[in-house]
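Why does residue order matter? Because the sequence determines the fold. Keep that principle in mind as you read this record.
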Amino acid sequence: MKHFGYTLFVIGFLNFTCFCIIAAVIGGDAVGHGPIDGKYYVSSHGRRTEVSRSVYEYSWYHTRSTWVTHPLMAVGWYLVYSEEKKRKSKPAA
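Structure:
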């Protein structure tokens, strides 16, 4: 179970790291708004950047993937933590 927890944590961490880097490069993410007058925008801290439809759609899906993998990262951390806690509480043989 410990290895499964590590795997979940690493997947969530890598996805979130990629999300942050890509959002910084393209100027934000595609959350909270749709196309405006046929143009697509990503935003970060109130600043909008026009992007192509494909970049917008990529950002839209990647953002939502973090909504799944971020909680999985927390579950993975909990699994590793609980396994370590069990291991430390067992008496030495």
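The chain has a mean pLDDT of 92.
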